Amino acid sequence: MLVCASTVMGQTAENPWAIGVGANIVSIQDDAVDAKTSLGIPALSISRYIIGGFSLGVQYANNSIKEGASNGGDLDYYSLDGIVKYNLGEGKSISPYLFAGYGYSNFSEGDTNSDGMFPSKEVSKTVLGGAGVAFKLTDQLQANVSTSYRAASENYAYNHLQHIVGVNYNFGAGDADGDGVSDKKDVCPDVPGLKEFQGCPDTDGDGIPDNKDACPEEAGKPELNGCPDSDNDGIIDSEDACPNAAGSAAMNGCPDADGDGVADKDDQCPNEPGEAANNGCPWPDADGDGVADKDDLCPNEAGDAANNGCPEAPKALLDFIGDENSKIFFTASSAAINDAGASLVSQLVSLLRKYPNAKVTIAGHASSDGSAAYNQKLSEKRANAVRDAVIAAGIDADRVDAKGYGENQPIDKNSTRAGRSKNRRVDFARRVDIAVN
Hints:
The chain is of the alpha+beta class. The chain is 12% helix and 28% strand.
């Protein structure tokens, strides 16, 4: 192998040493010598990578040069040189390089009486420079071709060209996947990769190595661990229910144009806020009172939510209930409705017919005559008597309640006969849950 090939291919900081073997061709460039170009072996070298494409090494070559008839005999040729080489294409399959060196060359006519590597005394200092090309064969084996011009400074030596053809072997940490990153530094030693990613590949070319890429076959963003986000909503496509329409995490990546909590893809009314239970559409509200028909006890008559969608009790009914004269009075210990009371019942029935959504509570009372328990029962009888009369007139029973308060809510003094007479009564109250209560 050639020393000038020593830094090509795999010879790096991780594979710093190279040895080589080859054959050399020597051509003397001197008109005074009638010599042919000769092929000889071996050409041996050893070298070490230094830094930045430079390597240093030692090269030895042996040859036998056939001289012409006028010169008489063959020349034994030997050379030993120190070499500095610069690689122009480090790590590539075909790598040109330049080299220069200094050493010794020997041309002798075969002195058999002397021993040693240079048996004659005709050793000349030699300066050399040249170029070559290396070809990758395997991860650690390369073929090499080089040529150099060698200037010998002694009178008994000759300027000459030296051509070398050989192979060299680089050794060190090794590179199992052949990606130019030594196994020692290769985070992905069994998969060819890139130097900038410590030997790991980047299959999708997104600048994130596969070993750190959650989506190694789809180009993505660093902030999303290498996964794509087509709609730029911050949710990776594989987890985005709407990968081509920007949305929110709450909607699994889908938009919600009307903000009703139902994603547009599932919303039958995407531009109008609605209910999830109604596929994103608002519930029908025929009377437009803001209470959905499904919850509106008066779906065809505008009301308010406090009255379950029904209107407040009409003023005429409220005026009747609030009138001091709208009270039915009873004689002592009696629950019989007199004529005046019957007239009030008739007025109430008329109003309830006029306003079919209204409901009332009939409240019965008693004076303090008798025991409290007796008076409680008596007040309940009076309230139920009026309720029965209203129902008998055709009003639905669920619209009329009756409640007795005994002697607990007097409107006058029970210490006088006149006061006790006023307390024996039935009046009407508005119900809490409906407009009239």
